[in-house]
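for the record, two folds in this file. i put them one after another cuz i was lazy. first one right below, seq on top, C-alpha coordinates after. the second one comes after a little note so u can tell where it starts
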Amino acid sequence: MTQQQVVPVLEIGGTHVTAALVDLASHGVLAEHRGHPDAQGSADALLSGWIETARLLGDVEGDWVVAMPGPFDYDAGIGRFRDVGKFDSLDGVDVGAALREALGADVRFVNDADAYGLGEWFAGAGEGSSRAVVLTLGTGLGSAFVADGAPVSSGDSVPLDGEIHFEELRGLPIEDVVSRRALMAAGLAATGVERDVHELAIAARAGEPAAAAVLAAGFSAVGEVIRPWLDRFGAEVLVIGGSMSRSWDLVEPAVLAGLDGWAGRLERAALGDTAPLLGAAWFGRGSRVV
Protein backbone atom coordinates (compact mmCIF):
# COMPACT_ATOMS: atom_id res chain seq x y z
CA MET A 1 0.00 0.00 0.00
CA THR A 2 1.49 3.36 -1.00
CA GLN A 3 1.95 6.20 1.47
CA GLN A 4 -0.25 9.22 0.88
CA GLN A 5 -0.86 12.48 2.72
CA VAL A 6 -4.60 12.70 1.97
CA VAL A 7 -6.29 9.45 2.95
CA PRO A 8 -9.90 8.37 2.37
CA VAL A 9 -11.28 6.72 5.48
CA LEU A 10 -14.41 4.82 6.47
CA GLU A 11 -15.18 4.66 10.18
CA ILE A 12 -17.88 2.09 10.92
CA GLY A 13 -19.86 1.99 14.14
CA GLY A 14 -22.90 0.13 15.36
CA THR A 15 -25.24 3.00 14.48
CA HIS A 16 -23.32 4.99 11.86
CA VAL A 17 -20.73 5.07 9.12
CA THR A 18 -18.49 8.07 8.47
CA ALA A 19 -16.60 8.65 5.24
CA ALA A 20 -13.86 11.26 5.42
CA LEU A 21 -10.87 12.66 3.60
CA VAL A 22 -8.08 13.14 6.10
CA ASP A 23 -5.06 15.39 5.56
CA LEU A 24 -2.22 13.95 7.62
CA ALA A 25 -0.05 17.03 7.17
CA SER A 26 -2.54 19.42 8.78
CA HIS A 27 -4.23 16.86 11.08
CA GLY A 28 -7.44 18.01 9.43
CA VAL A 29 -10.58 16.48 7.94
CA LEU A 30 -11.13 17.96 4.49
CA ALA A 31 -14.56 16.42 3.85
CA GLU A 32 -16.91 14.26 5.90
CA HIS A 33 -20.22 12.48 5.32
CA ARG A 34 -22.32 10.28 7.63
CA GLY A 35 -24.82 7.54 7.02
CA HIS A 36 -26.89 5.38 9.35
CA PRO A 37 -27.34 1.84 8.03
CA ASP A 38 -29.19 -0.63 10.23
CA ALA A 39 -26.66 -2.84 12.02
CA GLN A 40 -29.25 -5.64 11.94
CA GLY A 41 -29.71 -5.33 8.17
CA SER A 42 -28.74 -7.83 5.50
CA ALA A 43 -25.17 -8.06 4.26
CA ASP A 44 -26.16 -6.39 0.99
CA ALA A 45 -27.93 -3.55 2.81
CA LEU A 46 -24.98 -2.90 5.13
CA LEU A 47 -22.37 -2.99 2.40
CA SER A 48 -24.52 -0.80 0.13
CA GLY A 49 -24.97 1.74 2.93
CA TRP A 50 -21.24 1.91 3.58
CA ILE A 51 -20.40 2.15 -0.12
CA GLU A 52 -23.01 4.85 -0.76
CA THR A 53 -21.60 6.93 2.08
CA ALA A 54 -18.05 6.45 0.78
CA ARG A 55 -19.09 7.59 -2.68
CA LEU A 56 -20.40 10.87 -1.27
CA LEU A 57 -16.76 11.96 -1.12
CA GLY A 58 -16.73 11.93 -4.93
CA ASP A 59 -13.74 10.81 -6.96
CA VAL A 60 -10.90 10.31 -4.50
CA GLU A 61 -7.38 9.11 -5.11
CA GLY A 62 -5.43 6.59 -3.13
CA ASP A 63 -6.13 3.58 -0.98
CA TRP A 64 -8.85 3.44 1.68
CA VAL A 65 -8.53 2.63 5.37
CA VAL A 66 -11.56 1.22 7.20
CA ALA A 67 -11.88 1.41 10.99
CA MET A 68 -14.05 -1.55 11.92
CA PRO A 69 -15.28 -2.94 15.25
CA GLY A 70 -14.53 -6.52 16.11
CA PRO A 71 -14.76 -9.40 15.96
CA PHE A 72 -13.22 -9.09 12.51
CA ASP A 73 -10.32 -10.66 10.61
CA TYR A 74 -8.46 -7.43 9.89
CA ASP A 75 -5.78 -9.01 7.70
CA ALA A 76 -8.20 -10.98 5.52
CA GLY A 77 -11.02 -8.41 5.62
CA ILE A 78 -13.63 -10.98 6.68
CA GLY A 79 -16.40 -10.44 9.22
CA ARG A 80 -16.54 -12.66 12.30
CA PHE A 81 -19.71 -11.18 13.80
CA ARG A 82 -21.38 -14.30 15.16
CA ASP A 83 -23.93 -13.74 17.94
CA VAL A 84 -22.58 -10.32 18.90
CA GLY A 85 -25.78 -8.34 18.37
CA LYS A 86 -24.60 -6.30 15.38
CA PHE A 87 -23.51 -7.02 11.81
CA ASP A 88 -24.42 -10.71 12.23
CA SER A 89 -25.26 -10.89 8.53
CA LEU A 90 -21.60 -10.17 7.74
CA ASP A 91 -20.28 -13.22 9.57
CA GLY A 92 -17.97 -14.96 7.10
CA VAL A 93 -18.46 -12.27 4.44
CA ASP A 94 -15.42 -10.96 2.55
CA VAL A 95 -16.02 -7.29 3.29
CA GLY A 96 -12.64 -6.34 1.88
CA ALA A 97 -13.37 -7.83 -1.54
CA ALA A 98 -16.75 -6.10 -1.72
CA LEU A 99 -15.30 -2.70 -0.84
CA ARG A 100 -12.32 -3.06 -3.18
CA GLU A 101 -14.57 -3.91 -6.09
CA ALA A 102 -17.01 -1.07 -5.38
CA LEU A 103 -14.41 1.61 -4.64
CA GLY A 104 -11.87 0.57 -7.25
CA ALA A 105 -9.01 0.83 -4.76
CA ASP A 106 -7.11 -1.17 -2.21
CA VAL A 107 -8.61 -1.29 1.29
CA ARG A 108 -6.91 -1.85 4.62
CA PHE A 109 -8.67 -2.53 7.93
CA VAL A 110 -7.88 -1.42 11.46
CA ASN A 111 -9.71 -2.07 14.73
CA ASP A 112 -11.89 0.90 15.64
CA ALA A 113 -10.48 1.20 19.18
CA ASP A 114 -6.95 1.11 17.78
CA ALA A 115 -7.89 3.82 15.27
CA TYR A 116 -9.19 5.99 18.12
CA GLY A 117 -6.02 5.41 20.12
CA LEU A 118 -3.75 6.15 17.17
CA GLY A 119 -5.61 9.40 16.54
CA GLU A 120 -5.12 10.59 20.12
CA TRP A 121 -1.46 9.50 20.05
CA PHE A 122 -0.80 11.12 16.68
CA ALA A 123 -2.68 14.41 17.02
CA GLY A 124 -4.47 14.55 20.36
CA ALA A 125 -3.86 14.22 24.09
CA GLY A 126 -1.10 11.65 23.64
CA GLU A 127 0.83 13.65 21.05
CA GLY A 128 4.56 13.70 21.71
CA SER A 129 4.64 10.46 23.70
CA SER A 130 6.33 7.25 22.66
CA ARG A 131 3.98 4.88 24.49
CA ALA A 132 0.35 5.72 25.24
CA VAL A 133 -2.65 3.82 26.52
CA VAL A 134 -5.99 5.17 25.36
CA LEU A 135 -9.25 4.08 27.01
CA THR A 136 -12.83 4.81 26.01
CA LEU A 137 -15.51 4.89 28.69
CA GLY A 138 -19.00 4.49 27.30
CA THR A 139 -21.26 1.52 26.69
CA GLY A 140 -18.24 -0.58 27.63
CA LEU A 141 -14.54 -0.15 28.28
CA GLY A 142 -12.39 0.05 25.15
CA SER A 143 -8.61 0.22 24.95
CA ALA A 144 -5.67 0.80 22.66
CA PHE A 145 -1.99 0.33 23.47
CA VAL A 146 0.16 2.43 21.14
CA ALA A 147 3.95 2.16 20.86
CA ASP A 148 5.72 4.55 18.47
CA GLY A 149 2.68 4.82 16.24
CA ALA A 150 1.75 1.13 16.10
CA PRO A 151 -1.08 -0.63 17.96
CA VAL A 152 0.14 -3.43 20.23
CA SER A 153 -2.26 -6.34 20.69
CA SER A 154 -0.02 -9.24 21.70
CA GLY A 155 2.75 -10.04 24.15
CA ASP A 156 3.18 -9.90 27.90
CA SER A 157 2.94 -6.12 28.12
CA VAL A 158 -0.74 -5.91 27.12
CA PRO A 159 -3.96 -7.73 28.06
CA LEU A 160 -5.40 -10.40 25.78
CA ASP A 161 -5.66 -8.92 22.27
CA GLY A 162 -4.80 -5.54 23.77
CA GLU A 163 -8.37 -5.30 25.12
CA ILE A 164 -8.80 -4.33 28.75
CA HIS A 165 -12.44 -5.44 28.82
CA PHE A 166 -11.22 -9.05 29.14
CA GLU A 167 -9.73 -8.23 32.56
CA GLU A 168 -11.29 -8.88 35.96
CA LEU A 169 -11.23 -6.81 39.14
CA ARG A 170 -11.87 -8.40 42.51
CA GLY A 171 -13.29 -11.49 40.82
CA LEU A 172 -15.69 -9.66 38.49
CA PRO A 173 -15.37 -8.91 34.78
CA ILE A 174 -14.35 -5.27 34.62
CA GLU A 175 -17.40 -4.34 32.55
CA ASP A 176 -19.56 -5.65 35.41
CA VAL A 177 -17.92 -2.94 37.50
CA VAL A 178 -17.59 -0.01 35.09
CA SER A 179 -19.73 0.28 31.97
CA ARG A 180 -22.98 2.05 31.26
CA ARG A 181 -25.07 -0.91 32.36
CA ALA A 182 -22.92 -1.57 35.45
CA LEU A 183 -23.07 2.03 36.69
CA MET A 184 -26.80 2.25 36.02
CA ALA A 185 -27.35 -0.97 37.99
CA ALA A 186 -25.17 0.27 40.85
CA GLY A 187 -27.01 3.59 40.83
CA LEU A 188 -30.38 1.86 41.03
CA ALA A 189 -29.20 -0.35 43.89
CA ALA A 190 -27.74 2.60 45.82
CA THR A 191 -30.47 5.19 45.28
CA GLY A 192 -33.61 3.29 44.31
CA VAL A 193 -33.92 5.42 41.18
CA GLU A 194 -33.13 4.23 37.66
CA ARG A 195 -30.89 6.81 36.00
CA ASP A 196 -28.41 6.93 33.15
CA VAL A 197 -24.78 7.77 33.87
CA HIS A 198 -25.05 11.44 32.90
CA GLU A 199 -28.03 11.76 35.26
CA LEU A 200 -26.00 10.20 38.07
CA ALA A 201 -23.30 12.77 37.31
CA ILE A 202 -25.80 15.61 37.62
CA ALA A 203 -26.99 14.21 40.95
CA ALA A 204 -23.41 13.82 42.19
CA ARG A 205 -22.63 17.46 41.37
CA ALA A 206 -25.81 18.49 43.15
CA GLY A 207 -24.50 16.92 46.34
CA GLU A 208 -26.22 13.51 46.35
CA PRO A 209 -23.75 11.30 48.27
CA ALA A 210 -25.01 7.94 46.97
CA ALA A 211 -24.73 8.97 43.32
CA ALA A 212 -21.27 10.41 43.92
CA ALA A 213 -20.14 7.21 45.64
CA VAL A 214 -21.37 5.03 42.75
CA LEU A 215 -19.44 7.02 40.16
CA ALA A 216 -16.34 7.33 42.32
CA ALA A 217 -16.23 3.55 42.81
CA GLY A 218 -16.71 2.87 39.11
CA PHE A 219 -14.19 5.38 37.82
CA SER A 220 -11.66 4.39 40.49
CA ALA A 221 -11.95 0.82 39.18
CA VAL A 222 -10.72 2.07 35.80
CA GLY A 223 -7.51 3.23 37.41
CA GLU A 224 -7.13 0.02 39.39
CA VAL A 225 -7.59 -2.33 36.45
CA ILE A 226 -5.31 -0.43 34.07
CA ARG A 227 -2.50 0.40 36.53
CA PRO A 228 -0.53 -2.89 36.27
CA TRP A 229 -0.74 -2.73 32.46
CA LEU A 230 0.53 0.83 32.40
CA ASP A 231 3.59 -0.36 34.28
CA ARG A 232 4.13 -3.43 32.08
CA PHE A 233 3.64 -1.45 28.88
CA GLY A 234 5.87 1.41 30.02
CA ALA A 235 3.17 3.95 29.20
CA GLU A 236 4.01 7.62 29.54
CA VAL A 237 0.42 8.82 29.26
CA LEU A 238 -3.05 7.45 29.91
CA VAL A 239 -5.73 9.11 27.78
CA ILE A 240 -9.41 8.64 28.56
CA GLY A 241 -12.18 9.43 26.12
CA GLY A 242 -15.69 8.22 25.35
CA SER A 243 -19.03 9.62 26.44
CA MET A 244 -18.31 9.37 30.18
CA SER A 245 -15.20 11.52 29.85
CA ARG A 246 -17.56 14.48 29.46
CA SER A 247 -17.88 14.27 33.24
CA TRP A 248 -14.14 14.83 33.62
CA ASP A 249 -14.60 16.67 36.90
CA LEU A 250 -15.82 13.36 38.36
CA VAL A 251 -13.74 10.97 36.27
CA GLU A 252 -10.28 12.47 36.82
CA PRO A 253 -10.04 12.41 40.63
CA ALA A 254 -11.50 8.91 40.87
CA VAL A 255 -9.20 7.47 38.19
CA LEU A 256 -6.21 9.13 39.87
CA ALA A 257 -7.21 7.49 43.15
CA GLY A 258 -7.34 4.12 41.43
CA LEU A 259 -3.97 4.70 39.77
CA ASP A 260 -2.49 5.03 43.27
CA GLY A 261 0.52 7.22 42.60
CA TRP A 262 1.31 6.18 39.02
CA ALA A 263 4.03 8.49 37.73
CA GLY A 264 2.69 9.03 34.20
CA ARG A 265 0.27 11.65 32.86
CA LEU A 266 -3.50 11.30 32.90
CA GLU A 267 -5.19 13.26 30.11
CA ARG A 268 -8.70 13.73 28.82
CA ALA A 269 -9.05 12.80 25.14
CA ALA A 270 -8.91 15.85 22.90
CA LEU A 271 -10.29 14.90 19.51
CA GLY A 272 -13.74 13.38 20.01
CA ASP A 273 -15.22 11.82 16.88
CA THR A 274 -12.25 13.02 14.82
CA ALA A 275 -9.83 10.67 16.63
CA PRO A 276 -10.67 7.43 14.76
CA LEU A 277 -10.61 9.26 11.42
CA LEU A 278 -7.12 10.63 12.03
CA GLY A 279 -5.95 7.36 13.53
CA ALA A 280 -7.20 5.29 10.60
CA ALA A 281 -5.44 7.64 8.20
CA TRP A 282 -2.22 7.34 10.20
CA PHE A 283 -2.56 3.53 10.10
CA GLY A 284 -2.80 3.81 6.32
CA ARG A 285 0.72 5.22 6.17
CA GLY A 286 1.99 1.72 6.72
CA SER A 287 1.61 1.08 10.46
CA ARG A 288 1.13 -2.51 11.51
CA VAL A 289 -0.37 -4.16 14.55
CA VAL A 290 2.34 -5.60 16.78
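(here's the note) second protein begins now
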Amino acid sequence: MYPLKFKSIYKEKIWGGRRLEAYRDDLPPNKNIGESWDLACHDYGDSVVENGEYAGKTISQLISEHRNELLGAKIDSEQFPLSVKIITADEKLSIQVHPSEDYVKKMNFLGGRTEAWYVIDADPGAYLYLGIRNCTREEFRKALDDDTYEKCINKVEVKAGDMFYVKSGLLHCIGGGITLLEVHENFEKEFRIFDYNRGRDLDLKEALDVLDFETEDIASDYRLITYKGNNIKEYNLPANFNIEVYNVQESMHQTSDRNRFHIFTCVKGEGEIVHLKGREKIATGDSYLIPAALGRYELEGEMTLVKSYVPI
Protein backbone atom coordinates (compact mmCIF):
# COMPACT_ATOMS: atom_id res chain seq x y z
CA MET A 1 0.00 0.00 0.00
CA TYR A 2 0.98 3.68 -0.20
CA PRO A 3 0.05 6.97 1.56
CA LEU A 4 -3.57 7.68 0.69
CA LYS A 5 -5.01 11.10 -0.01
CA PHE A 6 -8.79 11.53 -0.20
CA LYS A 7 -10.99 13.96 -2.08
CA SER A 8 -12.27 16.73 0.15
CA ILE A 9 -15.97 16.74 0.96
CA TYR A 10 -16.91 20.41 1.21
CA LYS A 11 -19.76 21.58 3.42
CA GLU A 12 -21.53 24.89 3.00
CA LYS A 13 -22.21 26.57 6.36
CA ILE A 14 -24.04 29.70 7.40
CA TRP A 15 -20.90 30.82 9.26
CA GLY A 16 -18.46 29.78 6.50
CA GLY A 17 -16.66 31.73 3.80
CA ARG A 18 -13.85 31.38 1.28
CA ARG A 19 -10.82 31.17 3.59
CA LEU A 20 -9.93 27.69 2.36
CA GLU A 21 -8.96 29.23 -0.98
CA ALA A 22 -5.65 30.07 0.73
CA TYR A 23 -4.86 26.32 0.56
CA ARG A 24 -7.23 24.86 -2.06
CA ASP A 25 -8.13 25.59 -5.69
CA ASP A 26 -11.17 23.31 -5.96
CA LEU A 27 -13.77 24.96 -3.72
CA PRO A 28 -17.33 24.93 -5.11
CA PRO A 29 -18.07 28.40 -6.55
CA ASN A 30 -20.40 30.90 -4.90
CA LYS A 31 -20.73 28.97 -1.66
CA ASN A 32 -19.71 29.81 1.91
CA ILE A 33 -17.61 26.77 2.76
CA GLY A 34 -17.21 26.11 6.48
CA GLU A 35 -15.89 22.56 6.57
CA SER A 36 -13.70 20.31 4.49
CA TRP A 37 -14.15 16.68 5.45
CA ASP A 38 -10.76 15.25 4.49
CA LEU A 39 -11.23 11.80 5.98
CA ALA A 40 -14.67 10.50 6.85
CA CYS A 41 -16.29 7.08 6.88
CA HIS A 42 -19.86 7.10 8.19
CA ASP A 43 -23.46 7.55 7.06
CA TYR A 44 -22.90 11.24 6.23
CA GLY A 45 -19.77 10.82 4.11
CA ASP A 46 -17.45 8.13 2.76
CA SER A 47 -14.13 9.56 1.58
CA VAL A 48 -12.93 8.66 -1.92
CA VAL A 49 -9.24 8.05 -2.68
CA GLU A 50 -7.72 10.74 -4.89
CA ASN A 51 -4.24 9.37 -5.64
CA GLY A 52 -2.60 6.21 -6.97
CA GLU A 53 -3.93 2.81 -7.93
CA TYR A 54 -6.87 2.94 -5.50
CA ALA A 55 -8.17 6.27 -6.88
CA GLY A 56 -11.97 6.23 -7.00
CA LYS A 57 -12.41 3.71 -4.21
CA THR A 58 -14.05 4.71 -0.95
CA ILE A 59 -12.35 4.16 2.36
CA SER A 60 -15.11 1.72 3.33
CA GLN A 61 -14.32 -0.33 0.21
CA LEU A 62 -10.61 -0.39 1.09
CA ILE A 63 -11.40 -1.49 4.63
CA SER A 64 -13.51 -4.33 3.24
CA GLU A 65 -10.80 -5.43 0.80
CA HIS A 66 -7.57 -4.68 2.72
CA ARG A 67 -8.57 -4.34 6.36
CA ASN A 68 -5.37 -5.43 8.13
CA GLU A 69 -3.03 -3.80 5.61
CA LEU A 70 -4.89 -0.52 5.91
CA LEU A 71 -6.02 -0.28 9.53
CA GLY A 72 -3.57 -2.60 11.29
CA ALA A 73 -3.70 -5.87 13.14
CA LYS A 74 -4.97 -4.40 16.41
CA ILE A 75 -7.66 -2.03 15.13
CA ASP A 76 -10.84 -4.04 15.54
CA SER A 77 -13.40 -1.24 15.32
CA GLU A 78 -16.36 -2.09 13.11
CA GLN A 79 -16.09 1.31 11.45
CA PHE A 80 -13.22 3.68 10.76
CA PRO A 81 -12.59 5.26 14.18
CA LEU A 82 -11.57 8.85 13.30
CA SER A 83 -12.70 11.85 11.26
CA VAL A 84 -10.42 14.63 10.04
CA LYS A 85 -11.76 18.05 9.06
CA ILE A 86 -10.54 21.54 8.28
CA ILE A 87 -12.96 24.08 9.77
CA THR A 88 -12.84 27.66 8.57
CA ALA A 89 -15.11 30.29 10.07
CA ASP A 90 -15.89 33.84 8.98
CA GLU A 91 -18.43 34.09 11.81
CA LYS A 92 -18.96 32.31 15.12
CA LEU A 93 -20.27 28.77 15.06
CA SER A 94 -23.09 27.89 17.41
CA ILE A 95 -22.29 27.39 21.09
CA GLN A 96 -22.59 23.63 21.53
CA VAL A 97 -21.57 20.51 23.39
CA HIS A 98 -20.97 16.88 22.44
CA PRO A 99 -22.47 14.06 24.51
CA SER A 100 -20.41 11.38 26.25
CA GLU A 101 -20.44 7.69 25.37
CA ASP A 102 -22.25 6.95 28.63
CA TYR A 103 -25.01 9.43 27.80
CA VAL A 104 -25.62 8.15 24.28
CA LYS A 105 -25.76 4.56 25.50
CA LYS A 106 -28.34 5.57 28.10
CA MET A 107 -30.36 7.38 25.43
CA ASN A 108 -29.87 4.55 22.92
CA PHE A 109 -28.27 6.44 20.02
CA LEU A 110 -24.81 6.82 18.51
CA GLY A 111 -22.74 9.93 18.93
CA GLY A 112 -20.41 10.10 21.96
CA ARG A 113 -17.52 12.28 20.87
CA THR A 114 -14.33 14.05 21.87
CA GLU A 115 -12.26 16.35 19.63
CA ALA A 116 -8.82 17.89 19.27
CA TRP A 117 -8.30 21.27 17.60
CA TYR A 118 -5.07 22.59 16.11
CA VAL A 119 -5.20 26.24 15.02
CA ILE A 120 -3.81 26.64 11.49
CA ASP A 121 -4.51 30.35 11.13
CA ALA A 122 -6.25 33.03 13.19
CA ASP A 123 -6.94 36.72 12.72
CA PRO A 124 -5.63 39.05 15.46
CA GLY A 125 -7.97 38.87 18.44
CA ALA A 126 -9.73 35.70 17.24
CA TYR A 127 -11.02 33.50 20.04
CA LEU A 128 -12.70 30.28 21.08
CA TYR A 129 -15.25 29.61 23.79
CA LEU A 130 -14.08 26.62 25.84
CA GLY A 131 -15.81 25.53 29.02
CA ILE A 132 -17.95 27.14 31.71
CA ARG A 133 -16.47 29.12 34.59
CA ASN A 134 -17.86 30.14 38.00
CA CYS A 135 -21.41 29.32 37.02
CA THR A 136 -23.99 26.77 38.14
CA ARG A 137 -26.46 25.08 35.81
CA GLU A 138 -29.25 27.39 36.98
CA GLU A 139 -27.12 30.52 36.60
CA PHE A 140 -26.07 29.49 33.12
CA ARG A 141 -29.65 28.89 32.02
CA LYS A 142 -30.65 32.33 33.31
CA ALA A 143 -27.65 33.93 31.58
CA LEU A 144 -28.76 32.40 28.27
CA ASP A 145 -32.25 33.85 28.76
CA ASP A 146 -30.80 37.27 29.65
CA ASP A 147 -28.20 37.21 26.83
CA THR A 148 -25.43 37.58 29.44
CA TYR A 149 -23.97 34.11 28.80
CA GLU A 150 -20.43 35.40 28.07
CA LYS A 151 -19.83 36.01 31.78
CA CYS A 152 -20.18 32.25 32.32
CA ILE A 153 -17.85 31.09 29.53
CA ASN A 154 -14.07 30.80 29.15
CA LYS A 155 -13.04 33.05 26.27
CA VAL A 156 -9.61 32.06 24.89
CA GLU A 157 -7.71 34.17 22.36
CA VAL A 158 -5.84 31.95 19.93
CA LYS A 159 -2.98 32.01 17.44
CA ALA A 160 -1.58 29.61 14.86
CA GLY A 161 -0.01 26.58 16.53
CA ASP A 162 -2.32 26.40 19.54
CA MET A 163 -3.77 22.96 20.33
CA PHE A 164 -6.85 22.18 22.42
CA TYR A 165 -8.53 19.01 23.64
CA VAL A 166 -12.33 19.30 23.57
CA LYS A 167 -13.72 16.48 25.65
CA SER A 168 -17.35 15.42 25.63
CA GLY A 169 -19.40 17.64 27.93
CA LEU A 170 -17.19 20.70 27.36
CA LEU A 171 -19.04 23.76 26.05
CA HIS A 172 -17.30 25.05 22.95
CA CYS A 173 -17.60 27.47 20.08
CA ILE A 174 -15.19 28.43 17.29
CA GLY A 175 -15.10 32.17 16.74
CA GLY A 176 -14.85 34.02 13.44
CA GLY A 177 -11.52 34.52 11.73
CA ILE A 178 -10.17 31.04 12.53
CA THR A 179 -9.05 28.09 10.42
CA LEU A 180 -8.32 24.93 12.36
CA LEU A 181 -7.81 21.21 12.06
CA GLU A 182 -10.38 19.11 13.90
CA VAL A 183 -9.76 15.45 14.69
CA HIS A 184 -12.57 13.60 16.39
CA GLU A 185 -14.19 10.28 17.07
CA ASN A 186 -16.22 9.17 14.12
CA PHE A 187 -19.64 10.51 15.07
CA GLU A 188 -21.57 13.63 14.00
CA LYS A 189 -23.68 14.48 17.04
CA GLU A 190 -23.83 17.78 18.88
CA PHE A 191 -26.33 19.61 21.07
CA ARG A 192 -26.76 23.26 20.07
CA ILE A 193 -27.05 25.67 23.01
CA PHE A 194 -27.08 29.13 21.41
CA ASP A 195 -27.06 30.09 17.73
CA TYR A 196 -27.14 33.91 17.52
CA ASN A 197 -30.73 34.05 16.26
CA ARG A 198 -30.01 32.20 13.01
CA GLY A 199 -33.28 30.28 13.17
CA ARG A 200 -31.81 26.81 13.61
CA ASP A 201 -33.14 24.39 16.20
CA LEU A 202 -31.60 24.32 19.68
CA ASP A 203 -31.08 21.30 21.94
CA LEU A 204 -30.96 23.10 25.27
CA LYS A 205 -32.57 20.39 27.39
CA GLU A 206 -30.14 17.72 26.16
CA ALA A 207 -27.21 20.11 26.37
CA LEU A 208 -27.93 20.93 30.02
CA ASP A 209 -28.01 17.19 30.72
CA VAL A 210 -24.45 16.68 29.46
CA LEU A 211 -22.68 20.00 30.10
CA ASP A 212 -19.61 19.88 32.34
CA PHE A 213 -19.82 22.70 34.92
CA GLU A 214 -16.59 21.79 36.71
CA THR A 215 -13.67 21.62 34.23
CA GLU A 216 -11.84 24.93 33.90
CA ASP A 217 -8.33 23.79 32.90
CA ILE A 218 -8.38 23.51 29.10
CA ALA A 219 -4.59 23.38 28.55
CA SER A 220 -3.12 20.30 26.83
CA ASP A 221 0.26 19.09 28.13
CA TYR A 222 2.80 17.39 25.91
CA ARG A 223 6.17 15.66 25.98
CA LEU A 224 8.82 17.18 23.68
CA ILE A 225 11.04 14.76 21.74
CA THR A 226 13.97 16.13 19.70
CA TYR A 227 15.69 14.26 16.86
CA LYS A 228 18.40 15.61 14.52
CA GLY A 229 17.06 19.15 14.49
CA ASN A 230 13.42 18.04 14.30
CA ASN A 231 11.02 17.79 17.22
CA ILE A 232 7.80 16.03 18.13
CA LYS A 233 5.23 17.22 20.64
CA GLU A 234 3.58 14.09 22.00
CA TYR A 235 0.23 14.76 23.64
CA ASN A 236 -1.31 12.22 25.98
CA LEU A 237 -5.01 12.85 25.50
CA PRO A 238 -7.53 11.06 27.75
CA ALA A 239 -9.45 10.02 24.64
CA ASN A 240 -9.91 7.23 22.12
CA PHE A 241 -7.31 8.88 19.90
CA ASN A 242 -4.05 10.75 20.35
CA ILE A 243 -2.19 13.62 18.70
CA GLU A 244 1.48 14.30 17.97
CA VAL A 245 2.84 17.44 16.27
CA TYR A 246 5.91 16.95 14.06
CA ASN A 247 8.17 19.93 13.32
CA VAL A 248 10.16 18.72 10.29
CA GLN A 249 13.16 20.88 9.42
CA GLU A 250 14.62 18.80 6.60
CA SER A 251 13.85 15.10 6.84
CA MET A 252 12.62 12.49 9.29
CA HIS A 253 12.81 8.73 8.81
CA GLN A 254 9.66 6.85 9.80
CA THR A 255 8.31 3.31 9.76
CA SER A 256 4.61 2.49 9.78
CA ASP A 257 3.10 0.53 12.66
CA ARG A 258 1.81 -2.89 11.57
CA ASN A 259 -0.71 -2.74 14.40
CA ARG A 260 -2.41 0.56 13.46
CA PHE A 261 -2.76 3.23 10.81
CA HIS A 262 -2.11 6.90 11.39
CA ILE A 263 -2.94 10.14 9.63
CA PHE A 264 -0.69 13.11 8.86
CA THR A 265 -2.20 16.56 8.27
CA CYS A 266 0.08 19.38 7.15
CA VAL A 267 -0.70 22.55 9.13
CA LYS A 268 2.27 24.64 7.96
CA GLY A 269 4.76 24.53 5.11
CA GLU A 270 5.14 21.82 2.50
CA GLY A 271 7.15 18.74 1.65
CA GLU A 272 6.92 15.15 0.47
CA ILE A 273 6.22 11.70 1.86
CA VAL A 274 8.80 9.46 0.20
CA HIS A 275 8.01 5.74 0.18
CA LEU A 276 9.08 2.62 -1.71
CA LYS A 277 6.53 3.17 -4.49
CA GLY A 278 7.07 6.90 -5.02
CA ARG A 279 6.59 10.38 -3.59
CA GLU A 280 3.47 12.16 -2.40
CA LYS A 281 3.45 15.96 -2.20
CA ILE A 282 1.96 17.38 0.98
CA ALA A 283 1.22 21.05 1.73
CA THR A 284 -0.76 23.07 4.25
CA GLY A 285 -4.28 21.69 4.50
CA ASP A 286 -3.47 18.24 3.06
CA SER A 287 -4.10 14.97 4.92
CA TYR A 288 -2.69 11.52 4.17
CA LEU A 289 -3.61 8.19 5.70
CA ILE A 290 -0.48 6.12 6.38
CA PRO A 291 -1.52 2.45 6.06
CA ALA A 292 -0.29 0.03 8.68
CA ALA A 293 1.46 -2.00 5.96
CA LEU A 294 3.32 0.93 4.33
CA GLY A 295 6.72 0.11 5.85
CA ARG A 296 9.60 2.57 5.75
CA TYR A 297 9.12 6.11 4.52
CA GLU A 298 10.70 9.56 4.80
CA LEU A 299 9.17 12.94 5.61
CA GLU A 300 11.08 15.54 3.59
CA GLY A 301 10.67 19.31 3.61
CA GLU A 302 10.14 22.15 6.03
CA MET A 303 6.70 21.65 7.53
CA THR A 304 4.57 21.05 10.59
CA LEU A 305 2.46 17.89 10.59
CA VAL A 306 -0.25 16.78 12.99
CA LYS A 307 -0.24 13.01 13.43
CA SER A 308 -3.46 11.43 14.68
CA TYR A 309 -3.90 7.79 15.62
CA VAL A 310 -5.74 5.35 17.86
CA PRO A 311 -3.97 4.17 21.06
CA ILE A 312 -3.56 0.41 21.36
